[in-house]
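Practice problem 4.
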């Protein structure tokens, strides 16, 4: 009898554990992005100059060779933050200040941006988004879809919010 109960519990544990691991990956990635975006906004206000958060065109590039870009809207390869001293939106290693470099999202987690966050998110010197009044949205999903996903939304005023998807209100995974 004890052996039968043990076998049943052992059979049920792996699926539950996989869900827990998936939720942890999504949550930690979303919280990391939220922290980075909050830091970037704070730095823009503190420095009184634009600060840019973007995904690299080459995730393996050295710090002095970073450039924004890569696959449009795909943030899975990581991100970096720089104070845009000359305000041109391009990272110039000898001129701009690299503030942070974020690691790629863990396997199985996809991170995509909407049109406002396709390549980069720029905070003006007053902490607002340089988006022409549009909100920026980053959708984080795994193979379970938007019901389990997370999203980070930046309002035009620069305020960031984190949302967890549900079956009734799934996150937009921003798939093509």
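Answer key:
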């Amino acid at each position: 009898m004890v052996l039968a109960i043990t076998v049943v519990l052992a059979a049920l544990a792996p699926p539950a554990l996989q869900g827990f691991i998936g939720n942890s990956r999504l949550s930690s990635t979303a919280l990391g992005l939220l922290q980075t975006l909050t830091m970037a906004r704070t730095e823009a206000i503190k420095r009184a100059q634009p600060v840019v958060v973007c995904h690299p065109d080459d995730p393996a590039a050295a710090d002095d060779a970073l450039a924004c870009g890569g696959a449009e809207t795909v943030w899975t390869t990581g991100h970096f933050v720089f104070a845009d001293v000359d305000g041109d939106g391009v990272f110039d290693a000898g001129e701009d200040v690299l503030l942070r470099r974020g690691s790629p999202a863990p396997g199985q987690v996809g991170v995509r941006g909407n049109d406002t966050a396709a390549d980069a998110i720029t905070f003006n010197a007053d902490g607002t988004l340089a988006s022409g009044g549009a909100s920026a949205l980053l959708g984080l999903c795994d193979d379970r879809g938007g019901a389990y996903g997370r999203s980070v939304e930046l309002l035009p005023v620069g305020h960031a919010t984190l949302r967890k998807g549900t079956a009734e209100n799934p996150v937009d995974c921003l798939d093509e």
